């Protein structure tokens, strides 16, 4: 969780911490030749959390996925106050990831600004407008019940309706 020290441990990918390097491409995805340093999934998580904090993201929740799924080691869920802020948070995060790793993360949903997904390989980041976040309730799917109660109060029924 946010505020807890990061723990190193077994990942879904193996016993060693997975690094973003030319020697270990992620799931067959190409890596950049500009990259000169190695970054663990915990390093990427710290970069993501710092970026979200710098851009005033709200209600940031970090979920450790290691050992639960092979899609990523961490999931981060955050809110922005408006569509414009959601898009700006995602854009700045993508810029910072590219600066540090030399690789551009994949981004979906930035144009609409309701829900933006940023995939950095080891960390999946979801940035929502508050009412969209309440509607989809990703934390409810990924966090254990006791952790969910500590993170957020139960969501009020949302008036948000997804567009077809």
Automatic annotation (TrEMBL):
Quaternary structure and interacting proteins, as annotated: Interacts with ribosomal protein uL14 (rplN).
A biological-process GO annotation: negative regulation of translation
Species the sequence originates in: Paracoccus haeundaensis
Any GO MF annotation of the entry: ribosomal large subunit binding
Region described as Disordered: spans on this chain: 1-40
Residues annotated as signal peptide: none
SUPFAM superfamilies attached to this UniProt entry: Nucleotidyltransferase (SSF81301)
Keywords: Cytoplasm, Repressor, Translation regulation
PANTHER family for this protein: IOJAP SUPERFAMILY ORTHOLOG, MITOCHONDRIAL ASSEMBLY OF RIBOSOMAL LARGE SUBUNIT PROTEIN 1
NCBIfam families: rsfS_iojap_ybeB
Function noted in UniProt: Functions as a ribosomal silencing factor. Interacts with ribosomal protein uL14 (rplN), blocking formation of intersubunit bridge B8. Prevents association of the 30S and 50S ribosomal subunits and the formation of functional ribosomes, thus repressing translation.
Name recorded for this polypeptide: Ribosomal silencing factor RsfS
GO (cellular component) term, any one: cytoplasm
